[in-house]
Request: fold
Amino acid sequence: MKKLVSVLLLLLSTTAVAAVDVLMLQAQSRFKPIPDGPPALTDNPITAAKVELGKMLYFEPRLSASWLISCNTCHNVGLGGVDIVETSIGHGWQKGPRNAPTVFNAVFNIAQFWDGRAADLKAQAKGPVQAGVEMNNTPDRVVKTLNSIPRYVELFKAAFPAEKQPVTFDNMARAIEVFEATLVTPAARFDNYLRGDKRALSTRERRGLRLYIAKGCANCHSGTNMGGTAYYPFGVVKKPGAELLPPNDKGRFAVTRSASDEYVFRAPPLRNIVLTPPYFHTGRVWDVKQAVSIMGSSQLGINLTAEEAETIVAFLKTLTGEQPQVEYPVLPASTATTPLPITEVIGLVTKGH
Ligand code: HEC
Ligand code: HEC
Reply:
């Protein structure tokens, strides 16, 4: 009898181990842990001098026409790399059309923006500085501003030592790209799991992972960044209403002009997702569980039960990694030749509460 029990126990434990291992193997074949440091960048070697300059530029409000808005305004490094509002507020208090995605781990995305219109972070960084609704500046004015501040001229020389005229708009973007590449969030509990520690996730969280794979979320949100690697229609099965999918934003269609890309968006990365509400390109959904349920009906044509959605959310919470510890840089003073700020309020709200 005793022997039978121990054989049974042995059998039970080996099946349990086997089941968990299958899940882990499935996970390991679809997802990759976030590395501890920045990956190598194409044509832009990472150096300490570039990181230092890039960090200052990232926090530099004088890259904006108003001297009020920096990259950090909308991609706050203390708030998961986002601004936690529906759609971003930029120059002159104008409200932009889309929700700000996080800069954390953005280096792992195949391309930048909801529609992938920028190939990489260096191409991306030139956009917001010039966008009328964001920082509303011009490359010439940025270069003039940087050249008027001797400390910046020194820092550009140190970051790009081989160049005669290192203070350029392109080099600004290169330095920012390098700094952004350092904004990775390693060591999430899910990464420890992927590295073989099955106890890094609770039973419930593993059940959430199993659902995430079985229901089909992993078909679109996978890889290192749990997304950010491919484009899909928002509404593969069922098109969401105009609130979530306003007719005037056709997504990737604006980039490719191909009819099949209408209302197509990049499947967003889900790393640190619980830190970065509100959700979707419109930022209209504040509750991550509701976002998951909408995905079920819009992308997969299924009605997830409340319990299933909650269990998937329990798994999503394990994707929160160590947040970068960024020391706020001291920025050099302007001089008499620095172009002065342009202050104006465009989107003036006339009705208060
Ligand atoms: C006024 C707010 C605002 C400012 C300022 C701003 N951004 Fe953004 N950023 C956004 C919004 C909104 C998007 C998404 C736009 C889209 O997809 O069309 C975005 C997208 C991005 C992305 C793409 C991330 C991804 O996953 O696709 C990166 C990277 C980024 N910004 C970096 C920067 C940098 C660097 C600066 C400073 C030079 C900056 N941003 C300034 C609001 C802002
Ligand atoms: C066919 C591809 C596809 C499938 C399957 C899919 N998604 Fe998505 N997911 C997307 C796209 C595309 C978006 C962006 C929608 C938009 O335009 O706002 C998105 C957005 C999201 C968001 C909002 C992210 C953010 O930063 O705002 C979450 C959360 C999410 N998906 C989770 C899931 C979960 C959980 C599942 C499984 C139940 C799932 N997705 C299934 C493609 C997919």
Notes: The pocket of heme C (ligand 2) is lined by residues 215-217, 219-221, 232, 234, 236, 265, 267-268, 270, 273, 279-281, 288, 291-292, 295-296, 299-300, 312 (CB under 6 Å). The beta strands are 231-233, 264-266. The radius of gyration is 23 Å.
